[in-house]
Amino acid sequence: MPGQKTPIITIDGPAGAGKSTVAKRLAEKLDLSYLDTGAMYRALTLKAIRQDVDLENEEALVRLARRTTIDLEYDASVLKVFLDEEDVSEAIRSVDVTNKTFYVARAPRVRQIMAEWQRAIAKRKGVVVEGRDIGTVVFPQATWKFYLDADVQERCRRRIEELREKGNNVNADRLAAELKERDRQDQTRSAGPLKKAEDAVLIDATQLSVDEVVEEMLKYIKNHCRLN
Ligand code: DC
Fold this sequence. Notes:
The chain is 50% helix and 17% strand.
């Protein structure tokens, strides 16, 4: 790893662009930790659903966040997510949680709490962090920033393949509509909207394999060694 002892590499971008796979691979190559911030929003949403908290009530969501602990453990390429010590790694990927996370993610004060947690986690070790507002809001001073994008049709195709591999039946039209709706929600919220940081490197993954994306990132990192 050239330069810093605890580097922070941010990868932002829309749903389905391949951020998780790329971020994990990059973390392995550089011997860094990996932080999936979407998993944190999902975990809090799961708790809100279970406790019947009004998702439209920001104050209630803030109170909920304050009495919640979310821990992420990343080991041997497997991410485990703990909500108040319960392993919720599977539960947070349900369609219901996926579609409702938008309520939690649009609440500015919840985002502030999440950002504090994310900064505290990143202090411990160098990390590759993926999300939507990581290079813009959470770590504006990150060592290296990437914005990973891909055509919506390609993102949709990949998601369908992924779900089919897991044995899920997929309605392609509905999935495309949901993906576009998530793009819209992510890009238009007033707090921490999805957008490329000015100093982030844009990578269009539409025509690239995971390995090619990771190679491109590694090449950039090598050529932009930060010595501080
Ligand atoms: O990356 P993902 O699909 O697991 O993210 C789940 C949701 O959380 C998605 O609706 C966007 C939101 N999110 C966010 O608002 N900010 C982040 N830094 C990460 C995710």
